[in-house]
DNA sequence: CCTGAAATCTTACGTAA
DNA sequence: TTACGTAAGATTTCAGG
């Protein structure tokens, strides 16, 4: 399950991150394998969990999600129990698309995606109402210059 | 090209963001359409650009990209020319997976994904060498609690 | 709803590193 | 041993009519 990826695997993953809807034949030709060999590697990568699934890449704005906000959060409490409910609370809010525990003068960093300011405000209320936070600093994205590029391999 | 999405479209997009590799039949059944009707909507969503493509969802750690860093950047210069070269420079660095122009006491926010600290340091050098930056504050992700969830629709 | 064409999945066997 | 190639067939899905 934890075999290391070789160069061929990385080539396949790179191609799949760019466009996964191409036929196995075309993909196989690109990376330099037969369709059959590619199929076997694909299956291995899927069952080992390196490939978690396949998803549609959407135009965020066209999908009506125009606003991106990054919120840096400093918390007041740090017990295991509190942390659990903190995580559960944020998981219940779909607009919180990312949550990282970070180093530095803040404890967590949230990426929030909504339709507009009003939507963000509702999320903000929901985030803060239930949790005792010491400080929240929000950075509004004015422009997405590079957005969610492939994981570098 | 700019027709609004109706509830059925959103249902389809929601399903596709969760798992796009399922058959049109299964998908159609889920959202309450015939395979044929789904196919027409899919084609429309693809040609209108709402769906930009399809991609494999990878396990970042398993793919060997263990380190995530968010860097807040304050710039010294702001001319159109400089901005162009700033963008081009960062686009040339694949480890910079996101770049947003933001409001607040910083000008830009970078998301950088690398294998380890050494890799991050190389990227950091590359980012800062060519550009006159006033300040850079980096937050290292200690733990990814929620990562890149679907765009809320 | 129906269908021809295409793609996927699977097995089997021979070969090369 | 481990991975690859070819080949061929069964099955499923696609892309429309």
Automatic annotation (TrEMBL), chains A, B:
The entry's keywords? DNA-binding, Transcription, Transcription regulation
Alphabetized InterPro entries for the sequence:
ArsR-like_HTH, AsnC-type_HTH_dom, Dimeric_a/b-barrel, Tscrpt_reg_AsnC-like, Tscrpt_reg_AsnC/Lrp_C, Tscrpt_reg_HTH_AsnC-type_CS, WH-like_DNA-bd_sf, WH_DNA-bd_sf
Q: Which GO terms describe its molecular function?
A: sequence-specific DNA binding
UniProt cross-references to Gene3D superfamilies, sorted A to Z: 3.30.70.920, Winged helix-like DNA-binding domain superfamily/Winged helix DNA-binding domain
> What Pfam families would the database entry show?
AsnC_trans_reg, HTH_24
Where's the HTH asnC-type domain? 5-66
Q: Which GO terms of type biological process are on file?
A: regulation of DNA-templated transcription; response to amino acid
Q: Does the keyword DNA-binding apply?
A: yes
Write out the GO cellular component annotations. cytosol
Q: What name appears for this protein in its UniProt entry?
A: Transcriptional regulator
């Amino acid at each position: 399950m934890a075999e290391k990826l070789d160069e061929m695997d990385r080539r396949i993953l790179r191609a799949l991150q760019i466009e996964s809807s191409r036929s196995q034949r075309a993909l196989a030709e690109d990376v330099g394998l037969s369709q059959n060999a590619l199929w076997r590697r694909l299956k291995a990568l899927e069952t080992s969990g390196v490939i978690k699934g396949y998803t549609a890449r959407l135009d965020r704005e066209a999908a009506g999600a125009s606003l991106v906000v990054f919120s840096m959060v400093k918390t007041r409490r740090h017990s295991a129990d509190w942390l659990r409910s903190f995580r559960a609370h944020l998981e219940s809010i779909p607009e919180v698309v990312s949550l990282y525990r970070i180093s530095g003068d803040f404890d967590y960093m949230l990426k929030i995606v909504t339709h507009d300011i009003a939507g963000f405000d509702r999320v903000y209320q929901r985030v803060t109402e239930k949790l005792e936070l010491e400080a929240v600093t929000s950075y509004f994205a004015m422009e997405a210059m590079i957005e969610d590029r492939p994981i570098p391999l």
